[in-house]
Amino acid sequence: MSDPRLTPDPALVTGSTSARIIRPVVDLCRSPEGPRDRQLLFGETVTVLGDVDGWSYVQSVKDGYCGHLRSACLGPDQTATHIVSAPATHVYARADFKSADRMSLSHASRLRVTDTDGRFACTSIGYVPLVHLTEITTRGTDPADIAALFLGTPYLWGGNSRFGIDCSGVVQAALLACGLPCPGDSDMQQSLGVAADGGYRRNDLLFWKGHVALVTSADQLIHANAGAMACVYEGIEETIHRIETQGDGPVTAHRRLPSLHSADELAL
């Protein structure tokens, strides 16, 4: 049976056009007015498959996730040149940090930079500090470093931004920033990499039923969780004990990702 999260519903498909997100953060819902499944960020590209009563049925280009969002959140597609590499940034009315801020953007938001003005990038929506951007082709080399950008972010079920994020959102952001394909939900992410054959290594993934965490060292992990209601570091054994004690079961998988470093650099 096909997964409706990744397989468009033929009954809802009336066309296929490319568009981009033009709001800072947009909920991708299970149905119009329905619950949030995931979120999309400014500048991300979607394929619009159908439109009904102010809602669009779309498929996200970054991970194939299907869902409904408000049509007013979409604009014409355009090629992004830069990505927000800081945890978050502001868009200013002028190339001046004392000017009015127009909106806030999360890490991984995408922008088309048309020029520069001093320390600022010029975009169609305003001016963004250059120090907060990197070229779209730039790739991170350590997912755990990217995940750390979300430390302290409030926990939000289905969240994908620095303003609110969940466990699979942290993992997806970390992997995509390093050029590693990653689906949106933790059950899908459990197919990533290979089964680990030894102790814990940096950037291993640990899974529980409905939860995922990213290993940062031999005895520590990072994850967004409802216990802390934030993205936090936590001891591995402490986490395993706490999750099992609260009735959510044992670790269901320990996966090892393709190395972005040499084996000596990853070994702890």
TrEMBL record:
Molecular function GO labels: cysteine-type peptidase activity
Keyword annotations: Hydrolase, Protease, Thiol protease
NlpC/P60 domain location: 137-258
SUPFAM superfamilies: Cysteine proteinases (SSF54001)
Domain of life, source organism: Bacteria
Entry keyword Acetylation: no
GO biological process: proteolysis
Pfam families: NLPC_P60, SH3_16
InterPro entries (UniProt xref): NLP_P60_dom, Papain-like_cys_pep_sf, PG_Endopeptidase_C40, SH3_16
Xref: Gene3D superfamilies: endopeptidase domain like (from Nostoc punctiforme) (3.90.1720.10)
Family assignment from sequence similarity: Belongs to the peptidase C40 family.
Protein name from the UniProt record: Cell wall-associated NlpC family hydrolase
